[in-house]
């Protein structure tokens, strides 16, 4: 039935900025200090390597999305080319991933609001963010796209501003008495890779986590106005974004400051704006990071609603309750959005009773969920190729199948490295339980 189809309301500029927003998160503004501590200046190599891995994963997804632009994206493709359980596992794990990330982000929103209004209880800010973002996602897909466009643009302007300011300090000595800063900080404090290969490998986990959400481009294919043109363009630009926004920004920070001093006094980005004499640096960065958190939450609401709709729409009887297959007149999976919002409401109450450390543990589980999705994308693409799905050859993955083997090996290395990072080992307990629950529920669904 035509009326039960999602509406194509996302333009090229929406898709481009959604893709960009997916690669730039809170991780860059505040989390970058933690990754620098693990690898020192060599973190630049880690981002370069991680960017290459993500690029191949996105090219695999892009080839399938251009050939078959549907909203369920990789869950739908896994269901079709690997099997119903693969679609079930991927869809529900991706939904769970965004619920977890959403709970973390909604808590973080309260923290950033407290920077200006310390008297406002954290749970009030969290509840307000949940209500506003839910309402935006209930209007239509264009409303989501428009908010994501502006959220992403704020992040981009902030990073470009920081890069320009940093170059001014490095080349012309702005804020440094007119004395240009040398490049010595990149190797003078224990070398370029002070923690050796092990530091590089451990940092790769955090680097890959910071790329979580990039696969959102695939989900937008079902609602893009011209997916054959916009999806390839957005994916091909990923590698340049990584080079400019991550490597460029972090490179400048580590040229200006010794790597072992970064993060000891707030966000690395605040330091740069402070150095050129911008008194409102902390407020500016707080505003930018607040929009980054709201952007991630906005994407989470969008992604969970679409994935629940897709699961209900898959195969014979669906991989999810038929209840979620209902769309509003404007083509929004309202029930999926509202159900996800209701689950996220739990996060508002968790602000009272759960220590913040638990959120750190839960977020580490999101890394496993992201790696699971990426692994399924690569494996599904290999099956897609074997089945002759890419006969059109509209957007073929480069260097196939070697690029697929490279991506799978890198993702395996990330999972192994996680076992050696304090606080992340909890994911190895929760993930098997989650997969066991999914397997059991799938078998019960099958037997009915």
From TrEMBL:
Any one cellular component term from GO for this entry? plasma membrane
Chain ranges of the Amino acid permease/ SLC12A domain = 14-445
Which sequence ranges are marked TM in the entry? 15-32, 38-58, 123-141, 153-175, 195-217, 238-257, 277-297, 332-353, 359-379, 399-419, 425-442
> Where does the protein end up?
Cell inner membrane
Top-level lineage group: Bacteria
- What is an annotated GO biological process for this record, any one? amino acid transport
What are the entry keywords? Amino-acid transport, Cell inner membrane, Cell membrane, Membrane, Transmembrane, Transmembrane helix, Transport
Topology term for the membrane: Multi-pass membrane protein
Classification via PANTHER family:
AROMATIC AMINO ACID TRANSPORT PROTEIN AROP, GABA PERMEASE
As for family, the record states: Belongs to the amino acid-polyamine-organocation (APC) superfamily. Amino acid transporter (AAT) (TC 2.A.3.1) family.
Protein known as: Aromatic amino acid transporter AroP
Question: From which organism does this entry originate?
Answer: Neobacillus piezotolerans
């Amino acid at each position: 039935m035509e009326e039960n189809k999602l509406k194509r309301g996302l333009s090229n500029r929406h898709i481009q900025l959604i893709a960009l927003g997916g690669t730039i998160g809170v991780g860059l503004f505040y989390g970058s200090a933690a990754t620098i501590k693990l690898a020192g200046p060599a973190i630049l190599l880690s981002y370069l390597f991680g960017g290459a891995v993500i690029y191949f994963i996105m090219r695999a997804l892009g080839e399938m999305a251009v050939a078959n632009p549907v909203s369920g994206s990789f869950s739908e493709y896994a269901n079709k080319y690997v099997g119903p359980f693969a679609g079930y596992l991927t869809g529900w794990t991706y939904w769970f991933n965004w619920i977890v990330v959403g709970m973390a982000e909604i808590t973080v929103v309260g923290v950033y609001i407290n920077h200006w209004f310390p008297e406002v209880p954290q749970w009030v800010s969290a509840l307000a963010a949940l209500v506003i973002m839910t309402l935006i996602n209930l209007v239509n897909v264009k409303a989501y796209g428009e908010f994501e466009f502006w959220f992403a643009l704020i992040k981009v302007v902030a990073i470009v501003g920081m890069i320009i300011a940093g170059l001014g300090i490095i080349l012309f000595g702005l804020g440094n008495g007119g004395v240009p800063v040398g490049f010595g900080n990149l190797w003078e404090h224990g070398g370029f890779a002070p923690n050796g290969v092990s530091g590089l490998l451990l940092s790769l986990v955090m680097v890959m986590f910071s790329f979580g959400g990039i696969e959102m481009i695939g989900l937008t294919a079902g609602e893009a106005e011209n997916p054959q043109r916009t999806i390839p363009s957005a994916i091909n630009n990923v590698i340049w974004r990584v080079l400019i926004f991550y490597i460029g920004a972090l490179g400048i920070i580590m040229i200006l400051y010794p790597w072992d001093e970064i993060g000891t006094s707030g966000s690395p980005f605040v330091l740069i704006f402070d150095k050129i004499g911008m008194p409102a640096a902390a407020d500016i960065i707080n505003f930018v990071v607040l929009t980054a958190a709201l952007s991630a939450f906005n994407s989470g609401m969008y992604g969970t609603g679409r994935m629940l709709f897709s699961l209900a729409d898959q195969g014979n009887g669906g991989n999810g309750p038929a209840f979620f297959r209902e769309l509003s007149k404007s083509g929004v999976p309202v029930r999926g959005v509202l159900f996800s919002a209701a689950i996220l409401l739990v996060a508002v109450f968790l602000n009272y009773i759960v220590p913040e450390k638990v959120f750190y543990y839960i977020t580490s589980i999101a890394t496993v969920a992201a790696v699971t999705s990426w692994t399924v994308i690569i494996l599904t693409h290999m099956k897609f190729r074997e089945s002759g799905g890419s006969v059109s050859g509209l957007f073929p993955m480069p260097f196939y199948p070697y690029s697929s083997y490279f991506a799978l090996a890198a993702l395996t290395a990330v999972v192994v490295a996680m076992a050696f990072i304090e606080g992340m080992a909890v994911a190895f307990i929760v993930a098997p339980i989650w997969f066991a629950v999914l397997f059991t529920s799938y078998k019960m669904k099958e037997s009915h």
